[in-house]
Amino acid sequence: MDAPHSVAIIGSGFGGIGMAIRLRRAGIHDLVILEKAADLGGTWRDNTYPGAACDVPSHLYSFSFEPGAGWSRRFSPQPEILDYLRGCARRHGLLPHLRFGTEVTEARFDEDAGLWRISTSRGEFAARVLVSACGQLNRPALPDIAGRDSFTGTSFHSARWDHSFDPAGRRVAVIGTGASAIQFVPELARTAARLHVFQRSAPYVIAKSDRVYRPGTRALFAAVPGLRELGRAAVYTSLESRAPAFVRHPGLMKVIARRFHDHLADQVTDPALRAALIPDYPMGCKRILISDDYYPALARPGVELVTDPIERITPTGVVTADGTPREVDTIVYGTGFRAAEFLAPMKIVGRDGRELSESWRDGARAHLGIAVSGFPNLFLLYGPYTNLGHNSIIYMLESQFRYVLRCVQAIERHRFAWIDVRPDVQAAFEAEMRRRMRDTIWARGCTSWYMNAAGEVTNNWPGSTLGYRRATRRPDPRHFEVRRLP
């Protein structure tokens, strides 16, 4: 076992890498990053499907302290984002702190020693502070469809793309029409002999307006940092202006909805297909998607949009509720992630032997989406109540970095064995979230991955990103129970 560390971080995506950078820049070098995979990158390591790219402009989907000047286009593709994260880790000296192939199975808090005892696939670790940077979109969800395991062809989830699969001349079924599917469906449609896209509910898709950055523009970004900062600010302001429509005044969503209807009318001329692509729920209630080539892909010869519910999967294909069988060679599941199962399947044990899974039996809860009562010195990044529908999650993460860093500094400065958010403080925060959530577009009757099993929206922040930054500006000492080291 390593000697106890000041901080152990689980995960090496944007959250884990950014948190480690902020800790090192503050002079906290005794840290370890535990990563179950063989490389860093989180979701940008795992999602390598054709067409994978960011849906937030890259000058905003990057750290403010590491803006990056080499993006090839406005919405960067997956390989560039992964290279960016690797470069961040290298430039900020994180490589010696990374432990690859180290999957955390259990973390148990030792109240007497004020340490987290961490069991992993590669041995034991201990740390004063434990930071979970596992994110929300890391465990693929497969649909509960009768006969799914009976299929004898090739099948895989989009987040576990089989790169030995060649769609040329193949009959392919895509189940799901979410954020990943609208990126890889156009790629499959170009070469597959037959493509069936099974749609449970139509997504709202607006124009992406992507563009390539010419060499001169990229050189200008590199030479004039102020230009990058100005562009970042402009993108942030444009996206943040949509916040009221999501969190306070859903009626304003009609303005954004016009962009959807115009985009659909421009790209789909077939009235029947266009009607099938109009959602039956309010815009924004589920994630709004962006694409310039998804709708044209559905209109290609050899592509079929299927809106009848799936009844079962057979060894050779998919049968819908109307009894129609569709014989296919391959099934690709674009069915999202188990987003509400934060920290699963790890076993986390806090004070008095309390298990986090038991505390979260009715859904994940955390003060500010960061601290969980009964689990001292445990901090979550991209936890409950911190997802967005309108802006870059990197901005939210940077707010959390600052909050967690100041907690760590307080623990070290004041020689605290541990700090634990008070249960009444967490309960008050949860009550405020439930009250504010009632006014949001997400509470308008649709189901989405923003919800837990009980139908509560617990993934999203019901406010502006500026409001979250103010709320996390600094930890309030009155919110915590503390115990000092002897």
Automatic annotation (TrEMBL):
Gene3D superfamilies: FAD/NAD(P)-binding domain (3.50.50.60). One of its GO terms (molecular function) is monooxygenase activity. InterPro entries: FAD-bind_Monooxygenase_sf (IPR051209), FAD/NAD-bd_sf (IPR036188). Keywords: Monooxygenase, Oxidoreductase. Transmembrane segments: none annotated. This is 4-hydroxyacetophenone monooxygenase. It comes from the Bacteria.
